[in-house]
Amino acid sequence: MASKAFSLVEIIIAVFVIGVGLAAAALFIASSFRTSLSVKNLLIASHLAQEGIELARNIRDGNWLDPSAQGWSEGLENTSAAKCTPNDKSFCPFSGNLDFLMDSVANIRQGDTPNDELDRLYFDPDTSRYLHNPTFAPTRFYRYLVFEYKDDPNTAQPYLYLKSIVRWKEGDKQKQILIQEKLYNWK
Q1: What angle do CA 146, 164, 57 make, to 5 degrees?
Q2: Cα(115)–Cα(122) distance, rounded to whole angstroms?
Q3: Residue 110 in contact with residue 94, Cβ under 8 Å?
Q4: 173: number of CA atoms within 13 Å, CB side?
Q5: For residue range 127-180, what is the model confidence (pLDDT) as tens digits?
Q6: What is the model's pTM?
Q7: Would residue 126 count as lying in a domain?
Q8: What is the count of structural domains for the chain?
Q9: What is the distance between the alpha carbons of residues 139 and 63, in angstroms, rounded to a whole number?
Q10: Residue 77's domain spans which residues?
Q11: Cβ-proximal residues to 126 (8 Å cutoff; 6+ apart), any chain
């Protein structure tokens, strides 16, 4: 005679199969959340690095329009009275390199590379902007810009070689994104 009730072994096997399925689903969901966070951080970092390039480009373009500007790269070099220019590098106190932290064209500061205290970005919820202003909420992102004067080997025209570097930490891994650009004096 066939038994219509489940045996204890059948119940244990069914609970085991359901448990394995639920555990796999939970691991998949957790992995999806981690991947989602990683992609979000990479997207934000990419935009912050591109913003650094755009801010430097904006300074250069603004210098072309400003008749009182001392040159196309004013504001992208040291702030001493003796200016470091693409044509006269003798006043460059940084041996051809210069590091900046910037939030906007009105807020540019000289800094070290890298420097966690100076490079850290803070989030302003009112404007949805990332700034180097510690009065706002700290974020996981750090940004700095590196400028180096170089001469184009084909045209011998000087240009600024610009690197925008954004770094952040995910778990115990340090991540970084780097965008590079050449800024010429096309005017």
Answers
A1: 90
A2: 15
A3: no
A4: 5
A5: 888 888 888 999 999 988 887 778 888 887 888 888 888 999 998 999 999 999
A6: 0.71
A7: yes
A8: 1
A9: 32
A10: 10-184
A11: none
